[in-house]
Specification:
This protein has 309 residues and is an alpha/beta fold. It contains ten helices and ten strands. 35% of the residues lie in helices and 13% in strands. The longest helix is centred in the first third of the chain and has 18 residues, at 87-104.
Length: 309
């Protein structure tokens, strides 16, 4: 039986950097995890030699952690043709981000494709493809850029499989591109994840190819199918529900794909919230929903206590 690859988005900060990320993931019972290499709302980054990589990799090996995935910051937009002065910076930053990902040992770097900001998706797709070619020509390490499926909020590109396929078809480095399939985004974009995931997966295979699906963002959605809202919620607490997400997590065709949760803290606000990822990992490993998830997280009860109820 294939190993169940499950993890979440963890922090990478301070002096511990990669080591701290791996330790946080281990505390949640995770064998894969995802990081930003710095704050997602800016492009300030530490030099590679300050990322504490050797200690982090040693800890990962010791704790049987199989993969780290990097997520590029969402403020970089390769698709904005109305501000050409930002394009060169985006290419330069993302080239360096591929170098950082490779140094961390990541083989996938997740990227929001971009937004056309009014110029139309065709113009954005052409520029995104051009940018990806420049990045992957300059950064030759064995790292794939995983274009993320988007919810279709605003002028986002990647709101359907065809737009992602069009980007890939327009590049000279197709073999260096992959896809990150976000369950919340794809449902919010209009795909029937909740009642026909196999049908959606078949459509993905027909349009893009299942061999390109290299990362799953496993998130429930606060909103109904086709809402174009992009609001994640905790596993089993949204419109997709636990049974659907558990089925995706354990889908036999996706066994080799890391499943990464980006679910929110539970609590009154970000400052006082409690991280639920250890509880969500335990539910998915047990393939059993905890209806008292929120109460148990806030009370900081032992993660596996619900299994004895």
């Amino acid at each position: 039986m294939a190993e169940f690859l499950i993890g979440s988005h963890v922090s990478m900060k301070g002096k511990d950097m990669l080591l701290g990320s791996a330790q946080e993931a281990a505390s949640f019972g995770e064998n894969v995890f995802m990081v930003y290499t710095g704050a997602p709302q800016n492009t300030r980054r530490k030099p590679i030699d300050e990322l504490n990589i050797a200690a982090g990799k040693a800890y990962m090996a010791e704790h049987q952690q199989r993969a780290v995935v990097v997520h590029a910051p969402y403020v970089v937009n390769l698709g904005n043709t109305t501000k050409p002065q930002n394009y060169a910076f985006a290419v330069e930053f993302l080239t360096d981000e591929v170098h950082r990902a490779a140094a961390l040992g990541a083989t996938q770097i997740v990227l929001h494709p971009g937004a056309h900001v009014g110029a139309g998706p065709d113009a954005a797709i052409a520029q995104i493809a051009q940018g990806l070619d420049e990045i992957l020509t300059a950064a030759t390490e064995p790292v794939q850029i995983a274009l993320e499926t988007m919810a279709g909020k605003g002028t986002e590109v990647g709101r359907n499989f065809e737009e992602l396929a069009a980007i890939m078809a327009a590049t000279a480095h197709n073999e260096r591109l992959s896809v990150c399939f976000d369950t919340c985004h794809t449902s919010d974009a209009g795909y029937d994840i909740a009642s026909d995931f196999d049908g959606v997966l078949h459509e993905f295979d027909q349009v893009i190819g299942l061999d390109k699906l290299k990362v799953i963002h496993l998130n429930d959605s606060k909103n109904p199918q086709g809402s174009h809202k992009d609001r994640h919620t905790n596993i089993g607490c949204g419109t997709l529900g636990f049974d659907v997400l558990n089925g995706i997590a354990h889908h036999p065709q996706l066994a080799a794909v890391p499943k990464i949760m980006e679910t929110p803290l539970i609590g009154s606000d970000r400052k006082h919230g409690v991280n639920p990822h250890g509880y969500e990992v335990a539910m998915l490993k047990a393939q059993r929903f905890n209806p008292d998830l929120e109460a148990d997280v806030l009370a900081e009860k032992p993660v596996d206590e619900f299994l004895t109820r």
